[in-house]
């Protein structure tokens, strides 16, 4: 399996990596030629060939650019699905976990598509509410077809679910100087977190979303695929003075792990419910209907058998997914995400840990790292203080 490693070997695997056997069927971003020109190291990810890191920078510099300046990620592999027709928003609200009634048009919301029978997470999604008859969803790359399939199967007459996975590119402009960069291009930057607005850049119509998965001030630009190169070039022309850096998916992984943000397939999955993953804040518990409602409400009331916890290395250990966690010589959990934190200069991890016995934050546990027991301290993410609220 291809991993997201620096030359020092510090960075962890990402589970959406696709097997080599499927490499010949990989989709390519409309920005592929720009990545090649920048000396990108590619990896198969969620069925796409995507840049992992770039020559002349690497994960550490790309990560630092987002924490201190501005970086741009091509995340065009993310899915796109549009739900339209009378009552489209109400239909989506009856399927996905969060409550669209909490937001209005022009707002976005993090939500979950759960399995109705088990409560496990099919995917985590950003939903963009345009109107009562128009919702745009951004699922993860590998899960888009399944999310679309489930929505189509449940859609009432008149509601249309369209898979637009390859119709749009998505550029994530992230970092404390991201607003300055977009401002140079005349793009709107004043809207609130988790909101979006239409804009035009050099004749290209696009959507500017005040969203991202890094914990920093940032925006995501949803652009027609045929216009992606022009928008990329405009960003880098304007970003020369801002020292804009192209960033790959390896840095995106270290950034999201520092925030404690879950990655589907590791920290969320069909085997890991929102209750276990401490994602109950993304569930509209009082809604009359959503997929998995009954089983999730029962699990919440009884208390989950395991919960997602944060771990920080006491020594020089670097945890990896799948490693066993011990307390008093007994296995009490498993690492789901683990990496070296470029900001904290130490190993960090998310782990599913047994709820019984209750282990308090600050408790020092042991992680089996290739036969060596390394000490790691339980803590509550985020590991790095985010700049967004």
UniProtKB/TrEMBL annotation:
The keyword Transferase applies. It is an enzyme of class 2 (transferase). Keywords: Aminotransferase, Methyltransferase, Transferase. GO terms for molecular function: aminomethyltransferase activity; methyltransferase activity; transaminase activity. It holds the Pfam family GCV_T_C. Residues 306-384 form the Aminomethyltransferase C-terminal domain. Belongs to the GcvT family. This is aminomethyltransferase. It comes from Micromonospora chaiyaphumensis. The lineage of its organism: Bacteria, Bacillati, Actinomycetota, Actinomycetes, Micromonosporales.
């Amino acid at each position: 399996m291809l991993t997201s490693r620096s030359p020092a070997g510090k960075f962890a695997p990402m589970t959406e990596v696709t097997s080599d056997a499927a490499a010949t069927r990989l989709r390519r971003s409309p920005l592929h030629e720009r990545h090649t020109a920048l000396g990108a190291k590619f990896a198969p990810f969620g069925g796409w060939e995507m840049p992992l890191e770039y020559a002349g920078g690497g994960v550490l510099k790309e990560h630092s650019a987002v924490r201190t300046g501005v970086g741009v990620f091509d995340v065009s592999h993310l899915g796109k699905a549009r739900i339209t027709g009378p009552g489209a928003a109400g239909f989506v609200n009856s399927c996905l976990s969060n409550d669209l009634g909490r937001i209005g048009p022009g707002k976005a919301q993090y939500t979950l598509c759960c399995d109705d029978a088990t409560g496990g997470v099919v995917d985590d999604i950003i939903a963009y509410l345009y109107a009562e008859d128009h919702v745009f969803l951004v699922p993860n790359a590998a899960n888009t077809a399944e999310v679309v399939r489930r929505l189509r199967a449940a859609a009432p007459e008149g509601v249309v679910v369209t898979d637009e996975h390859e119709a749009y590119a998505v550029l994530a402009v992230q970092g404390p100087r991201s607003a300055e960069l977009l401002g140079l291009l005349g793009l709107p930057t004043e809207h609130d977190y988790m909101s979006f607005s239409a804009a035009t850049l050099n004749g290209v119509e696009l959507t500017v979303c005040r969203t991202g998965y890094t914990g920093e001030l940032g925006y995501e630009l949803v652009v027609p695929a045929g216009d992606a190169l022009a928008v990329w070039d405009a960003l880098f022309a304007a970003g020369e003075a801002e020292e804009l850096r192209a960033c790959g998916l390896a840095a995106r992984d270290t950034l999201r792990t520092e925030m404690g943000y879950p990655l589907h397939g590791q920290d969320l999955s069909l085997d890991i419910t929102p209750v276990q993953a401490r994602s109950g804040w993304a569930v509209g518990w009082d809604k009359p209907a959503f997929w998995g409602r009954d089983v999730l409400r029962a699990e919440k009331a009884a208390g989950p058998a395991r919960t997602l916890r944060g771990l920080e290395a006491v020594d020089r250990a670097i945890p990896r997914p799948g490693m066993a966690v011990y307390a008093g010589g007994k296995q009490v959990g498993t690492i789901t995400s683990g990496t070296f934190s470029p900001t904290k200069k130490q190993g960090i991890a998310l782990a599913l840990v047994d709820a019984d016995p209750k282990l308090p934050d600050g408790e020092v546990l042991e992680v089996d790292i290739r036969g060596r027991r390394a000490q790691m301290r339980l803590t509550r993410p985020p590991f790095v203080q985010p700049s967004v609220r």
